[in-house]
Amino acid sequence: MDGCSDRFLHIGSAMYQTLRTSLLSSARCWDANSHQSYQTLFDRLDTNKDGKVDVAELREGLKAMGIFRHGAAQEIVSSGDQNKDGCLDFNEFTKYLKEHEMKLWLTFKSLDRNNDGRIDASEIQQSLAELGINLSKEDARKILHSMDIDGTMMIDWNEWREHFLLCPAHNLEEIFRYWKHSSVLDIGDSLAIPDEFTEEEKSSDVWWKQLVAGASAGAVSRTGTAPLDRLKVFMQVHSSKTNRIGLTGGLRQMIAEGGLTSLWRGNGINVLKIAPETAIKFMAYEQYKKLLSSEGKKIETHKRFMAGSMAGATAQTAIYPMEVLKTRLTLRKTGQYAGMFDCAKKILKKEGVIAFYKGYIPNLLGIIPYAGIDLAVYETLKNAWLSYYAKDSANPGVLVLLGCGTISSTCGQLSSYPLALVRTRMQAQASLGSSEQVSMTGLLKTIVAKDGLFGLYRGILPNFMKVIPAVSISYVVYEYMKTGLGISH
């Protein structure tokens, strides 16, 4: 999700149309070489009349025009501020608008497929389809309506320019990117479809900065929710019908055995595996997409799911020994291992190399239902929002986006949880002192026979409890990291 909501503008229809007309009325026929229209707009934004527009003044001006996008004012000032004094004088303001208009013009031309100087609903529909967003004609008309000034249900260059003039997003990918299902929302299980980048981003340094921002967000998020994650694993392995472990009981047991800091056992390696897994999954995803998609065409949703599932499987295969170490370190008793390397050395000596791939098959099988249901639910919620609520703008807002991502991830987790539980049990078998190594099917039968179907969902409550804080923390950290790395568009 995806990842993502600060790249677009929110238009309040009635307020926007009225205020936009009053603020830009003298600039209805913009001329790239005309300073008069720029001067009028600059004078209105420069409320303290000091010959400069700072972030606060621009933010108030954007709000008055109905542009509520977080970070837009800061981004415009940062982009146009050549002398780095934190504000724009008239020359800087003019230069920024001219360059921005040129980019908007190129986007307008790419949308105007029949070169008649206007954009209609079918052209918007076709362009969105190429971005992987399947929209009905009626929904495309709703989006068109949010930009239409003269009521013709066709957008000319003046209408397009006025709508996006003070929005930092300038190309189609940026304008509609908020609908991309982003993997930024880290809930501790790296099974989601990887993030996607445009060709322009891949040829610059934006892609790796976004991966770094996402990995940092994941690290902070996992650390913040580590006690709930450890409680989940503890309940998965130790809880049963005869040994019921509740939320408070489980926390008490762990604290009594190892103190408060023991709640973070296994978190170090859980954070450490983010970087290699993200990098492998991203590179594999790009290769699988090339194999599955036609040259020059956008990849369809079902092929994206296939590529994402295969990329997830590739990454999991490469880093799976770290998954086993994470489970063993999470369940360790005080003094059992000196650290990660000591744990790896003892497993290797006692159980051999094969131990590092225990539970691998249920883990691999879990990727398919997780990624498939996650993506399908997200697409359904996204299209449902567009169908019912996209009256005056195509912008769903931050809460809707986070809601879509949270619900879809939760549904994905619910579908794959029994396999995740079996994986954890298989990884933990030797550490429980069990000499008998049970297979995946054997373990499933044993759990169902002893605890019923509910036994396959042991520990799911703390797992669900960590979703909302994990999503919230990862989103906030991601936003701050993007700003810090200079990719706040």
TrEMBL record:
<dbReference type="GO" id="GO:0015867">
    <property type="term" value="P:ATP transport"/>
</dbReference>
<comment type="subunit">
    <text>Monomer.</text>
</comment>
<comment type="similarity">
    <text>Belongs to the mitochondrial carrier (TC 2.A.29) family.</text>
</comment>
<protein>
    <recommendedName>
        <fullName>EF-hand domain-containing protein</fullName>
    </recommendedName>
</protein>
<feature type="repeat" description="Solcar">
    <location>
        <begin position="205"/>
        <end position="291"/>
    </location>
</feature>
<dbReference type="InterPro" id="IPR023395">
    <property type="entry name" value="MCP_dom_sf"/>
</dbReference>
<dbReference type="GO" id="GO:0005509">
    <property type="term" value="F:calcium ion binding"/>
</dbReference>
<feature type="domain" description="EF-hand">
    <location>
        <begin position="99"/>
        <end position="134"/>
    </location>
</feature>
<dbReference type="InterPro" id="IPR011992">
    <property type="entry name" value="EF-hand-dom_pair"/>
</dbReference>
<keyword id="KW-0677">Repeat</keyword>
<dbReference type="GO" id="GO:0015866">
    <property type="term" value="P:ADP transport"/>
</dbReference>
<keyword id="KW-0999">Mitochondrion inner membrane</keyword>
<dbReference type="Pfam" id="PF13499">
    <property type="entry name" value="EF-hand_7"/>
</dbReference>
<dbReference type="InterPro" id="IPR002167">
    <property type="entry name" value="GDC-like"/>
</dbReference>
<feature type="domain" description="EF-hand">
    <location>
        <begin position="33"/>
        <end position="68"/>
    </location>
</feature>
<keyword id="KW-0812">Transmembrane</keyword>
<dbReference type="GO" id="GO:0005347">
    <property type="term" value="F:ATP transmembrane transporter activity"/>
</dbReference>
<dbReference type="InterPro" id="IPR002067">
    <property type="entry name" value="MCP"/>
</dbReference>
<feature type="repeat" description="Solcar">
    <location>
        <begin position="396"/>
        <end position="484"/>
    </location>
</feature>
<dbReference type="InterPro" id="IPR018247">
    <property type="entry name" value="EF_Hand_1_Ca_BS"/>
</dbReference>
<dbReference type="InterPro" id="IPR002048">
    <property type="entry name" value="EF_hand_dom"/>
</dbReference>
<feature type="domain" description="EF-hand">
    <location>
        <begin position="135"/>
        <end position="170"/>
    </location>
</feature>
<keyword id="KW-0479">Metal-binding</keyword>
<dbReference type="GO" id="GO:0005743">
    <property type="term" value="C:mitochondrial inner membrane"/>
</dbReference>
<keyword id="KW-1133">Transmembrane helix</keyword>
<dbReference type="Pfam" id="PF00153">
    <property type="entry name" value="Mito_carr"/>
</dbReference>
<dbReference type="GO" id="GO:0015297">
    <property type="term" value="F:antiporter activity"/>
</dbReference>
<dbReference type="InterPro" id="IPR018108">
    <property type="entry name" value="MCP_transmembrane"/>
</dbReference>
<keyword id="KW-0813">Transport</keyword>
<keyword id="KW-0472">Membrane</keyword>
<keyword id="KW-0496">Mitochondrion</keyword>
<feature type="repeat" description="Solcar">
    <location>
        <begin position="299"/>
        <end position="384"/>
    </location>
</feature>
<keyword id="KW-0106">Calcium</keyword>
<keyword id="KW-0050">Antiport</keyword>
